[in-house]
Amino acid sequence: MTDTVEHAPATDADEREPGAADARRILEISDLTVDFSTEDGLVHAVDHVSYHVYAGETLGVVGESGSGKSVTWLAAMGLLRRTSAKVSGAVMMNGQNLLELSTDELRPIRGSDIAMIFQDPNTSLNPVMSIGDQIDETIRAHGRASTSAAARKRTIQLLDLVGIPDATERCRQYPHEFSGGMRQRAMIAMAIANDPKVLVADEATTALDVTIQAQVLEILELAREETHAAIILITHDLGLVAELADRVVVMYAGRVAEIGDCDEIFRLPAHPYTEGLLGSIPVMGGEPRRLLPIPGQPPSLTRLPSGCAFHPRCARSADRAICREQRPDPIEVGPAHLSACHFWSEMTSGAPGAPASPATDG
Fold first, then answer.
1. Helix (H) or strand (E) holding 133
2. In a 3-state reduction of DSSP, which class is residue 256?
3. Residue 122 in contact with residue 131, Cβ under 8 Å?
4. Cβ-based neighbour number of residue 222 at 10 Å
5. Which residues of the chain have pLDDT under 70?
6. Which strand (E) or helix (H) includes residue 297?
7. Are the C-beta atoms of residues 206 and 151 closer than 8 Å to each other?
8. What is the phi/psi pair of residue 326, to 5°?
9. 71, 79, 82, 289: most buried, per Cβ within 10 A?
């Protein structure tokens, strides 16, 4: 796969210092591949994925179920069982390739430099430990408190920060005594306890009702302000991405389909899959329009189509040979905007165009 370089939106500092944009990268995923051996064959869950994360940004990662969104970050954090998953590539942070570190070497990094809020707090919280003890343990494990009293003081501050009332009393309660929304808040408190540089929220609001979702999103924004962490928002909710994200990574069948500034991608997508996702969600206000679902089903990850993985469902492909035969790598189609489509120019210009050539290393 040809490596490509994406550029952050220019700022005055970036213009004064040509290397400033690169310096703002706190984590970089390069050519990441994750395969699982199953009875049905080799599952290509993540297929040569490359993108990076800037300090302090909110990066939305979207796509249908099975697109590789969560597996990418589980692999990056070393949370996949290495006996069942074959992982290759690089995940660079603090000058280290996280994929090359042992479990013992990763332990101080997880929860300190990079933390994750999982979709279901019921399976993430220990049912036989109080909420306070679990957060205390996280704080003390990373040396952020020298005594039990100091850890408990920090825990109470965190629970208060995420909006849990009577935090001192709630510390003594167990997960089953919390509502679903409160358990998710406790998970966020635990994730930000050690001021991580990267905070991964994996479908953190999916199981919550709309009102609680809104409250949790406010807390995530508050967490970013408190810790200055980059937030990775893994979700299928494009409305959520439109509201919170600075940039977007669109994934399909384990591959990157499009990367770019959130506003630009929502205004002028450069990949038919992104266009299909946007066309299948309701929009409040404006002229009424018919929702257009993407035809067909995502492909089996054990038998990916040749060429572009999306071509069997793509109306723009029109069964053109290049779409069936040649896999498109992400190429730069504009400032900070990449697309893995041979005919992206037809979408951005509205007129047929020749296939694009992959960008060279820059």
1. helix 131-141
2. strand
3. no
4. 15
5. 1-23, 82-83, 206-210, 284-289, 349-362
6. none
7. no
8. -125, 120
9. 71
Q: What is the pLDDT of residues 270-310, one digit of tens each?
A: 999 999 998 877 776 666 667 778 888 999 999 999 999 99
Q: What is the pTM of this model?
A: 0.85
**Residue written as token pair 């924004």:** 221
* Cβ(131)–Cβ(125) below 8 Å: yes
| CB-based contact 252:64 (threshold 8 Å) | yes
Structure tokens that stand for 284 in this block: 């409040």
At residue 293, the pLDDT reads 82
Going by DSSP bridges, is the β-strand pair 230-234/58-62 parallel, antiparallel, or unpaired? Answer: parallel
Contacts of 178 (CB under 8 A, 6+ apart): 131, 170, 186
| DSSP string over 180-202 | HHHHHHHHHHHHTTT--SEEEEE
C-beta separation of 203 from 153 below 8 A: no
Compute the distance between CA of residue 192 and CA of residue 184 in angstroms, rounded to an integer: 13
Q: Which residues, other chains included, contact 285 with Cβ-Cβ below 8 Å and sequence gap of 6+?
A: none
Q: Are 23 and 69 in contact (CB under 8 A)?
A: no
Q: State residue 5 phi and psi, 5-degree precision.
A: -115, 125
- Quote the crossing angle between the two packed helices 180-191 and 131-141, to the nearest 10°: 10
Q: How many CB atoms lie within 10 A of CB 304?
A: 15
- Closest to 107 measured CA to CA, from 154, 66, 143: 143
Task: Identify the bridge partners of residue 202 per DSSP, sorted by sequence position.
Answer: 234
d(CA 278, CA 269): 9
- How many other CB atoms are found less than 10 A from the CB of residue 277? 23
